[in-house]
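Run log, item B.
One chain of 254 residues. Sequence copied directly from the ordering sheet:
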Amino acid sequence: KQYGCKVKSQKADLRGYDGTILHSRNIMASYKPELTTRILLCAHWDTRPWADNDPDSTNWRKPFPGANDGASGVAVMLEIARLLQLDNSLNIGVDFVCFDAEDWGTPQWLNQEEHGDTWALGAQYFAANLPAGYEARYGILLDMVGGQGARFYREGISQRFAPEIVKKVWRAARAAGFGSYFPKTDGGTITDDHVPLNQVARIPTIDIIPFYPDCEQSAFGPTWHTMADDMEHIDRATLKAVGQTVIQTLFTEQ
C-alpha cells in the first residue's frame, strides 16, 4: 500500500502434512490494477517452522530466521514495487503475490516418503481460486534469491511449462550485466509454488531458485533449512542481480 499498490488478502484454512489446520493468508498487491496486460511476480512469505536440515540434530525442531528462505523473495518484490512507483512509466500491470504455507512440507525427521503436495499449500489454493477473471501473461517466482554464492540454473518445471519465459529472463540478465548469476545450464526439477500456477492456473511461470551442484549440505545451498539462514549469510549483490534482472524483464514487455 505504501508503494501505491492495491492490496487484497486471500484467507484460507489449509491442512498441513499432519492434519494441522493452518490459518493462512495469501497477499496480492497490484501495480496499475486497471491495466489488462499483467505480469505475475511471486514469492512465499512464510518460513519453515523447523530447521530439519541443520547439521546439529538438536536444532531440527526449532524455527530458523528464514532470511533467504523466503524473506529474500519478498524483499526483492518490495524493492521492485518501490522502484515502479518512483518511475511509473511501465505500461503493463504487475501483481506481487506473497504465498503462505509454502514451507510446511513433510519434515525430514519423519524419515518417510516425500509427498510433493504437502508443499506450496498457499499457491495450490491460489491457483485453484484465482481472483475473478484474473489472467497474467506469465509469472516469475522468486525463491531464495539472496544467498551467498548463489547461481540460478534453469529449473526443470520452468523449462517444461515456460521455456520461452526462461529464455526471456536469462536474456534480460545478460542485458542487465548479471549473466554470470544466470548460467545457461540446466539445474534440478523443484517442487515449488510455480507448479500449481503452471498445472492448475495455466499461467506459464518460471522459478528463479539457486542451485549449488557442489554443496554437500544441500543443492539449495549451505544454509537451507538450517539455523544459519540469517542476515549474516545474505548477499546484497545477489539480491541486486535478481532484482535488476526482473526489472529489465518487465521493461522489455510491450
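Observations after the first pass:
- The CA atoms of residues 152 and 210 lie 5 Å apart.
- The mean pLDDT is 96.
Flagged for discussion on Thursday.
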